[in-house]
UniProtKB/TrEMBL annotation:
Keyword tags: Acyltransferase, Transferase
Annotated ranges, domain Hydroxymethylglutaryl-coenzyme A synthase N-terminal: 2-167
UniProt-listed CDD domains: init_cond_enzymes
Enzyme class name: transferase
Transmembrane helix among keywords: no
A Pfam family: HMG_CoA_synt_N
InterPro entries (alphabetical): HMG_CoA_synt_C_dom, HMG_CoA_synth_N, HMG_CoA_synthase_prok, Thiolase-like
Full protein name: Hydroxymethylglutaryl-CoA synthase
Phylogenetic lineage: Bacteria, Pseudomonadati, Myxococcota, Myxococcia, Myxococcales
Keyword Transferase: yes
Molecular-function annotations in GO: hydroxymethylglutaryl-CoA synthase activity
Amino acid sequence: MQVGLEAIGVAVPDTYVELADLAMARGVAPGKYVDGLGVTRMGVPLVDEDTVTLAARAARMALESARCSPDDIGLLVVGTETAVDHSKPVASYVQGLLGLSTRCRIFETKHACYGGTAALQMALDWVRSGSAKGRKALIVCSDIARYGVGTPGEPTQGAGAVAMLVSDHPSLVVLEAGKTGVYSKDVMDFWRPLYSKDALVDGHYSVQCYLDALEGAYRAYQEAAGDAGGEGAYSDRFAALVYHVPYGKMSRKAHRHLRTLDGDAAPDASFDRLVGHSLVMPSQVGNIYTGSMYLALASLLSSAPEDLTGKRVGLFSYGSGSCAEFFSGVVQDGAQARVKALGLEAKLARRRALSIPEYEDVMRAREHLDERPAADAAGSGFRYQGTRDHKRIYAT
Ligand code: CAA
């Protein structure tokens, strides 16, 4: 049985900040953010958007793209590190907004940016084991990345969600059973204490932790795949490599490291060919934590000019704290056309730019979002309206 991704959906906020504007406001050379970090724009959600609304919008796109009925879903897992409640999972809100069946197993996973991958791997095994009994899993990665205003992490924020329909009709990407390598280690590189809305990070150390985890997971993958040895660089077995993208430059550092492990004396030479297309959308959205690597996969499928049908793609997911996984998939016939048809680039182009004062106002307003009284006016299209009687209210 082949199992993998049948459809994908992406949601990003309607508003963004231009990184060159942010740099100037912070007294930093724009080149540092745009070239030094490799980010052009970052998505900034307004106050009617949260992890739930982004997740629901992405999930709806995935279901519509596959013409899948809500009743076909037997498992819904939302991976997030920016949940809206200490107890009730984001997945339950999404179930309600999408009208999923009551005969659906529903929960939330957390392990920093790895939480979505943990959910995806579990869903793949659920289908492979036969427990799915013909039903499909909906895995959603949804986050709003938030660091303090004026901190080094500020230009690496972003927001968005990626939803994936996982089934035994993997018409986008077959994920290869058994071909995964995991690396985990207790490190303090990035975290968010219970009392804080902003993430804390030991920035340069987090980069090193990411690279160490990449090395460990890549080595483990090679052992699991059982095809080490042979001619040339091991990573030339992949038509593309998709890394977790907290910011574009991190993918470049990752690729340099991986090719150096391969013994490549010119480790940057293959970057544009193997990685470039996966960074088109992330550079316009910023870090979306759990969904980051999957947005990069959507970017690859949407913007790579060459036909990837039947070709293998390497995927590297990293979650601080830490757990990482290197795994692989094979692109299916028609996958690129189907992802292109989602019109993601056009959606990104239609967003509205926020001025820096507008962005700072939004950041201040988001501090108190959880207690904001629910507005009386009815909205529509999966919007957060506020809280009434300690309950979050959403417009459908
Ligand atoms: N023009 C072009 N490039 C410039 C420049 C200019 N004028 N000025 C500086 N640069 C370059 C620097 O040379 C540097 O490039 P290299 O990394 O290739 O050397 C780059 O811009 C960044 O400069 P600094 O390292 O001085 O930047 P910083 O200290 O202010 O912060 C950061 C960088 C540590 C990544 C910070 O943004 C941060 O803490 N971000 C959040 C943490 C993060 O994303 N970590 C990634 C790994 S952890 C992970 O992946 C999980 C996750 O999602 C959070």
